[in-house]
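hey can u check if this looks right to u? its 400 residues, i copy pasted from the old doc so theres a chance i mangled smth
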Amino acid sequence: MSIKSLKYCNRCVMPETTEGLEFDENGICTACTSSEQKMHINWKERREILESLIDEAKKNAKENDSPYDCIVPISGGKDSTYQLHVLVNVFKLRVLAVTFSHNWYSKIGFYNLVNCLEEFNVDHIQFTPNRKSVGVAARKSLQAIGDACWHCHSGVGSFPLHIAVKFKIPLLIWGESIAETSGRASHFNPVLKFDRDYFLKVSAKISVDDFSSNPEERRMFQLFEPPTMEECIEQEVHGIHIGDFIFWDEEKQLEFIKNEYGWIEDRVEGAYKGYKSVECIMPGVHDFTNYLKRGYGRATSQASMDVRQGLIGREEAAMIAQEFDQIEPAALQYFLNITGYSEEEFYNSMKELRKPQVSNSEIPVRQIVDSKKSSPKLPFVIEFINSIRKATKENDTRNN
């Protein structure tokens, strides 16, 4: 393994610095244990439980004269596309799709989002925070939680809850179970309650009040705070993951949505697979900060998942992790531009945020000199605006 001071799972390549991860007496991590448990679950019984929950949601929606049976939070990524397939085309639910936009959508990610809306013919509500507030949040986020993405961690949980409360739609349905890759749960010891407190503690990690430096910032970030517990209880808001009820096979599902619905992969920085977080230009920065403070990145997680599925061995997984985790993402320059940090300030901040297990270790970083790989990254909407302006200017010049 690349960082000698770390303890790693004896089966995959996940290190001890993984949030919530534990090792059993054999040195096997929670995620690997959960992967074994998955093979001993009666998925037919689990599906029947899901069917009863769906039947109840349909019944309640009709009794309350609600136009929607449930809310499905979506990004347009592989999981939310597949969950729309299951819920709309298999179980025939009438869903309200809800998107929190990080305002960092990639071109392919934007296509995947609007494509799935068209394919599944669902109503859709989206909240996009303004670019200035995203920049302010990104700068504060680095010190507050150790990565660039507090606004996204907070928004993906809080905004669907706001819609659930305001439109009185109590059931929210997500896709992949957190038992698939997270150390925070296993299939035999699941998280049973996905409510306001769960998203505040696990996803956002810090409240809007604690994140904001003054009343104006508090107003700026107000929608990133979930509804009150009283509001959620009054509307009986609750959530489930369909991955806790049907066998989840992301490789098989990926091929399915590509063939059936035209979903598209793309290169994702810091990853060796082109499907996780493809909707965003910034996952490479998020995963790179994780690497700098915990000693592992996205490639480690993906390679470990492949080990559990029997696709590769542990030695190959370690080589993959080392090859990809160490690369400084091209999107880091965009992050520095919008936050005002210098490169030196960024790296100094990350060094201060290192976990104790890697505080004195060398964490190697490689920069890619290939111009195609290191070209500046911008959100698709900015590129789109710039391209239209350029084309209009060129057209005006020709006409004159």
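The chain has a mean pLDDT of 91.
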